[in-house]
Design a protein that fits this description.
Elements: H1 3-25, E1 28-29, E2 32-33, E3 75-83, E4 94-98, E5 114-118, E6 124-130, E7 141-147, E8 153-159, E9 179-183, E10 186-190, E11 193-194
Parallel strand pairs: 3-10, 3-11
Antiparallel strand pairs: 1-2, 3-6, 4-5, 4-7, 7-8, 9-10
């Protein structure tokens, strides 16, 4: 083998190795494999933006749990990474979340089911909340704004796989679908954001 063949062989091996964990964790939507969320690397893509909708409230409290006292709604733990298009962790990225309650109502006077967290030095974030109800005319979703320190704000929405209303929701985008697994009494969800840093 010459040096060029060795280099190409190493690239293919590296590419296959990196793809293995992703391929094994991908769920499905309507029986079709979920597309990967936009990836960083040689052909970087950024997480698509979406409308904030009419119910955004600025100045949410900093908190990693949005669970309200006495709530009997199904629990959701959402975690993942915030990455730059060059695959570098975005330390201290701001993630501001909001969604409706279990009955599909938004709190427009206070901060129920609203709050923000910061990614750690490795770009990791974690949020405890509930599985939101279905807002009339929409599929189940979570709103989020993500911002690297000093960067532009990404406003988008995250979706649940296998929701019947995904088909009829005109805003729904498959590439914004979280990877979700049931774990006892709760659901564990994963989504990695790729943002301009």
């Amino acid at each position: 083998m010459n040096r060029i063949q060795i280099r190409i062989g190493r690239r293919r091996l590296l590419g296959a190795t990196l793809a293995l964990p992703l391929a094994s964790s991908i769920g499905s939507v309507f029986g079709q494999p979920l597309p990967l969320t936009p990836t960083c690397g040689e052909k970087p893509g950024r997480t698509p933006s979406q409308t904030a909708g009419p119910f955004y409230s600025p100045d949410s409290p900093r908190r990693s749990s949005l669970i309200e006292p006495g709530s009997k709604a199904e629990r959701l733990v959402l975690a993942g990474l915030v990455l730059s298009p060059q695959c570098k962790p975005v330390a201290n990225a701001l993630l501001d979340f909001w969604h409706c309650d279990e009955t599909g109502e938004y709190d427009n006077k206070g901060f129920r089911y609203r709050g923000h967290v910061f990614a750690d030095a490795q770009g990791r974030y974690r949020l405890e909340t509930i599985v939101p109800g279905e807002y009339p005319g929409r599929t189940r979703h979570i709103h989020v704004k993500v911002q690297a320190p000093g960067g532009r704000v990404l406003t988008t929405q995250l979706y649940f796989p296998d929701e019947p209303r995904n088909r009829s929701d005109g805003i729904f985008r498959r590439e914004l679908t979280m990877q979700v697994a049931r774990k006892g009494e709760q659901r564990d969800a994963k989504f990695d954001f790729v943002v301009a840093a």
